Amino acid sequence: MIYNVIMAGGKGERFWPLSRIGRPKQFLKLISDKMMLEETIDRVSSFIPNENVRIVTNQSMQEIIIENIPSLDKSNILTEPEGRNTCIAIGLAAIHLVKDDPEAVMVVLSADHVIKPPEKLVSIIKRGSEIAAEEDFLITIGITPTRPETGYGYVKMGELFSDAGGFSVHRVSGFTEKPKAAIASEYYYSRKYLWNSGMFIWSAKTLLSAIEKHQPEMHQLLTAYSKEIGSANEASARELLYKEVESISLDFALLEYADNVLTIKGDFIWDDVGGWLALERYKEKDMENNVIIGDALLLDSYETTAYNQEDGIIACLGISDIVVVRSGEITLVVHKTQADRIKDLLTKLEEDEKYKKYL
Hints:
The two termini are 40 Å apart. The strands form four sheets. Strands 6-9-7-8-10 form a five-stranded mixed barrel. A four-stranded mixed sheet has the order 12-14-16-17, with no helix packed on it. A two-stranded antiparallel ribbon has the order 5-11. It has helices at residues 36-42, 62-68, 86-100, 118-134, 181-190, 204-214, 216-226, 234-244, 250-255, 342-351, and strands at residues 2-7, 53-58, 77-80, 105-110, 114-116, 138-143, 154-162, 169-176, 193-203, 261-266, 269-271, 291-293, 296-299, 305-308, 314-317, 322-327, 330-335. By secondary structure, the chain is of the alpha/beta class. α3 (86-100) packs across α6, α3 (86-100) crosses α7 (216-226) and α6 packs across α7 (216-226). The radius of gyration is 21 Å and the shape is globular. It has ten helices and 17 strands. It has two domains: 2-271, Spore Coat Polysaccharide Biosynthesis Protein SpsA, Chain A, CATH 3.90.550; 277-358, no CATH class.
């Protein structure tokens, strides 16, 4: 069977103060009237039913999911005792799935993406699932770049593997993490590179084999943990697993070393909605290119985002290229060129005991 495995463990710090420890980005309604996690489930529900959804998230988020998405219950959720990066999160899902369904195919999605139209993604998932069910490949979904973006990783397309059904499937010849502007421009114009979307397709067995080959210690820990799945000791065994396992991303742990990686080229609108500047790409703008959400009045102000979640008003006069956010007891004002440094601000808050309550 095919399963929708959704990574929903991120903190969403770049959307602070709207995104906070108790309700991170994936549980917010940023782009539509649905939580981003709910959007992720719905966009592929025509192909993967809700009973085959597995959400990997922090254990503190379980009740929020159940309360807000009535179609899901605890059987759909795999909780992590702590965040230890993406390799173990996906490995945890794989070890659970393979125990129940040895032929399980995993479609790994992130809970904070914008994808339009969803039908194109579903078509790619169908093709990728066919390959994954028949052969031992690790498949990434790459996105055709629309700009020389420095905030995304890139996948270099190698030789053509298949173009059956109109889908361009290539072997992967390399990965590059967020490049500098000149390199990103080179990648964009070469047409040999795709954005690394963080969406994947593979069988649970193939993923676990890759972990065994490239991360043997992690595989040993997962194998030991698997013996306790379904037992009274499962929770404590998972605590031990996360205490001992290395914190490492999937890309660094497996994909950069594996020789059985493919990428399917995706020609659809995709965005990882990384921070406040992303709203400019999807929200309506006024005549001065301002994005205004909630009650706000901007006079002689340009290229500014004002997000007001509270009663009252945000009033701006004579400013440009600013993000102003009012959420609860917090007001954030940041120049757009510094918006990617919000994590630095949160680090300073964490250092002072009287400010930790605002995280």
